[in-house]
């Protein structure tokens, strides 16, 4: 081990950035504090001591952040697992409502909310990120957040950038690891929660509510330990889509049904338009079951198994703002607003008011065998399976508008059963001279297999109940990624540490095909590619209270199955694939300085990313077809430069007050691109979509005493664009991406050791902001929790 004085110095310097706000009370040797469960750092490198370990490569001297279960409970209104990331520097999850299962995509420094395949999310080393696709379009591919509930979380750790050879190119933005609870004694927990969101926008003025209940039980008896968690979410989300018509498309005429209720608004191009109604107002019921078993075969060898079940049933409901002379809602046909007639292709149909009914059952299995001797050798074998056991979506046809669509009629049935992924990993750690030696070598083999099976059928009778008829579209394809990797952590001088590594990958795509009818099937040839990604990082304890770090890494993000083959067609959207897409290749680097301020730590990080052939899916509205058209393309080169400042402090100014905050500046511009949106060259020099120039977070938490605590948080994001040509000048509308500033409040009261009551307000200032869809307005939460 290191000399005690140097280890104490490094601990005082680095602990706060392993877990924000988790500071030691003094600078004693951590060996004298065996109860410490949080990660600690040595010379700017995280070393996990005790508790359930993170899966992150903790020897990498790069930017890492984390948060503990206690901090989440005290300071965050967490209704879903992704809420734990709310105040992390440079991170944003596009969560639209409680239980958002198909659009809650993670954004990082240089990866926007349309690029879900550029970040990797794990829970206890099991992949939750859905790398079957990227972002949203004809299909949606957010991480499977629903397979972790907030009550399970023990800790969340984040590594920024592709600086570890242990992860594929999908780690270009960030790697998130949820560490969930595994008991050391008998534990029981129960929680109920309620959320109320008064929502007012256009012609909608309604309160939407969500209810949640969760229970957990676990124990450790001898060599066996187990944990069971069940959770139900019953949620009403606000409307997310809005049919519109440009004022300029109306014709001065008396034709059509005269209506009232059309809400004047503006398009993303600031053109005058009418908003005619709302859609995709989800009523969602989700059930979650997680079972974890562990057996200590020997004191240094543990076998673990995880079973997760996630069932989702939701209905997406439309509502027309338009009323005829009798006061009845108008959903179809030609209509007339203030003397402007909308006929022909501008008339109303089921495409404007889509009614959906979804039913899904997803199953995850995880199995691992891991040694933890901390001697010369350690190893791990791990495998996981994610299975779309059932995944159905029913939707009315364009010819079947409401109100008839609410009870049946023609439509479509989309089925995704058979879709899923499998992972296998074999890892080893070699310490030639033990833990105190200058080298720690990590190495491994990984294989990931992805299988997409998604078919849509026309339903001529009752789309709500009938089986599929003729084929409307079919998508299938497989990809496989095999990887060999190794990295050496080398302590080559007393205050220096370096990590050198590399990742060799072979990628294959096969069995690809699409069809829009039984007679139009296309099959695509197999593809395979080989790539190598070097990694390097170094840290230097320049001063007793200052550590300097540098990291550099290459990431190759392979095209996903959906991007290659996922052409789909539904009533209101069309997704176009490209089987010849090139992988995107990124070089990312960062320089950081971290300074110990006694009871706080400050960090300043300069980061750069240069990406070639960036993979982008862009959704545009076709005013002629009256539906969304999504296309995938390679963007020649995107260059990002930025600066991130972060601060974390405990007992700042007064005992009990914890403060944390961050400010990020990013200059992210398209430098090269042969593709275009409207005319050649119209994307050159434009800002990368969904990357704000400025963003910031702040969180203050105060513990009055053992019973009372409160927190106040704030989040800011500057101007963004959603389109590659930055033509969306107006972000405060449907399809737009707006700036925002929101404040969040939480109050926690513990009348006894076992009972906890919490009240919170998210979006306290009721900012009305957008990311294609409207975000939630001011929301009130209440929680009641019992712990054995």
TrEMBL record:
<dbReference type="GO" id="GO:0015344">
    <property type="term" value="F:siderophore uptake transmembrane transporter activity"/>
</dbReference>
<keyword id="KW-1134">Transmembrane beta strand</keyword>
<dbReference type="InterPro" id="IPR000531">
    <property type="entry name" value="Beta-barrel_TonB"/>
</dbReference>
<dbReference type="InterPro" id="IPR037066">
    <property type="entry name" value="Plug_dom_sf"/>
</dbReference>
<feature type="domain" description="TonB-dependent receptor plug">
    <location>
        <begin position="59"/>
        <end position="175"/>
    </location>
</feature>
<keyword id="KW-0813">Transport</keyword>
<keyword id="KW-0472">Membrane</keyword>
<keyword id="KW-0406">Ion transport</keyword>
<comment type="similarity">
    <text>Belongs to the TonB-dependent receptor family.</text>
</comment>
<feature type="signal peptide">
    <location>
        <begin position="1"/>
        <end position="24"/>
    </location>
</feature>
<keyword id="KW-0732">Signal</keyword>
<dbReference type="InterPro" id="IPR036942">
    <property type="entry name" value="Beta-barrel_TonB_sf"/>
</dbReference>
<keyword id="KW-0675">Receptor</keyword>
<dbReference type="Pfam" id="PF00593">
    <property type="entry name" value="TonB_dep_Rec_b-barrel"/>
</dbReference>
<dbReference type="GO" id="GO:0044718">
    <property type="term" value="P:siderophore transmembrane transport"/>
</dbReference>
<protein>
    <submittedName>
        <fullName>TonB-dependent receptor</fullName>
    </submittedName>
</protein>
<keyword id="KW-0998">Cell outer membrane</keyword>
<keyword id="KW-0812">Transmembrane</keyword>
<dbReference type="InterPro" id="IPR039426">
    <property type="entry name" value="TonB-dep_rcpt-like"/>
</dbReference>
<dbReference type="InterPro" id="IPR012910">
    <property type="entry name" value="Plug_dom"/>
</dbReference>
<keyword id="KW-0798">TonB box</keyword>
<feature type="region of interest" description="Disordered">
    <location>
        <begin position="393"/>
        <end position="412"/>
    </location>
</feature>
<feature type="domain" description="TonB-dependent receptor-like beta-barrel">
    <location>
        <begin position="335"/>
        <end position="764"/>
    </location>
</feature>
<dbReference type="GO" id="GO:0009279">
    <property type="term" value="C:cell outer membrane"/>
</dbReference>
<dbReference type="Pfam" id="PF07715">
    <property type="entry name" value="Plug"/>
</dbReference>
